[in-house]
Automatic annotation (TrEMBL):
PANTHER family: NUCLEOSIDE TRIPHOSPHATE PYROPHOSPHOHYDROLASE
Keywords: Hydrolase
Gene name as annotated: mazG
MF-aspect GO terms: nucleoside triphosphate diphosphatase activity
Listed name of the protein: Nucleoside triphosphate pyrophosphohydrolase
Keyword Phosphoprotein: no
Length: 272
């Protein structure tokens, strides 16, 4: 039996635990994992952290949830570092050193002599430093260079990048015109019935809506997450109301379900 580290409040203890999980007498599941097989968990744990961060402040267990989800994300970081260490690439110390160097390099107003008046100047300097870093990696100054993210979030990031490259609408009203134009093209595609064209135009609509969110200073991924949460709450409430009325959900007509939907919306709205 592996000995439990004496102080579980130290990051070294977590590194030791993960190393033992991957060791000869460790966990069969952990020993089988690769960077590729763990990808889905990195995505899931990050999204669960975001969900905890967005819980209402009034929720009593919010801090506990954030703590737990941060731990799950940290486990992923340590586990990937352990896999890399085993093949002689890098370890957790190298990961810590890398991010520390980056933070120091990108905050010369804190760790250097650079003077800034406000957040706007911080962001301006940050962009200059990032451009210098990209120049060293021989990246084109006009490269979008957007990381692989969920599609809606990536559309937003693409827009932020093209905005800096001065290829953008002047304001939200200009984007609204584009959204309406794309909706019309989607309607035409639906009438023509071409699946390829429908997919194309639907994608353009979603991309344009992401840019509208950007111009409204609303991150579309976050906006959609909140909309998803509202829908889930309303759906659960409408089913609950139907059950209270001793109705068989599977036998209800669409019009009846709509009535329960509207009632659920009003009840939940009254609680906010």
């Amino acid at each position: 039996m592996a000995q439990t580290p004496s102080n579980l409040r130290q990051i070294e203890s977590l590194v030791e635990i993960v190393s033992r999980l991957r060791g000869p007498d460790g966990c069969p599941w952990d020993k089988e994992q690769t960077h590729e097989s763990l990808t889905q968990y990195a995505i899931e744990e990050t999204h669960e952290l975001v969900e905890a961060l967005e819980l209402p402040q009034s929720q009593s267990n919010k801090d506990q949830k954030i703590k737990e989800e941060l731990g799950d994300v940290l486990f992923q970081v340590i586990l990937h570092s352990q896999l890399s260490k085993e093949r002689g690439a890098f370890g957790i110390e190298d990961v810590i050193e890398s991010i520390s160097e980056k933070l120091i390099r990108r905050h010369p107003h804190v760790f250097g002599d650079t003077k800034v008046a406000d957040t706007a100047e911080v962001i301006k300097n940050y962009d200059v430093i990032k451009k210098q870093e990209k120049a060293l990696s021989q990246s084109s100054p006009y490269s979008l260079d957007v990381p692989p993210l969920p599609a809606l979030q990536r559309a937003y990031k693409i827009g932020k990048r093209t905005e800096k490259l001065q290829f953008d609408w002047d304001d939200a009203e200009g984007v609204m015109v584009k959204v309406e134009e794309e909706f019309e093209e989607l309607r035409e595609a639906l009438e023509e019935g071409s699946e390829k064209e429908i997919e194309h135009e639907l994608g353009d609509v979603l991309f344009s809506l992401a840019q509208l969110g950007r111009h409204l200073e609303m991150e579309p991924e976050q906006v959609l997450r909140k909309a998803n949460s509202r829908f889930e709450s309303r759906f659960a409430k409408m089913v609950e109301l139907a059950t209270q009325d001793q109705k068989d959900w599977s036998q209800l007509k669409l019009e009846e379900k709509e009535q329960y939907w509207q009632k659920a919306k009003e009840l939940l709205k009254a609680k906010t």
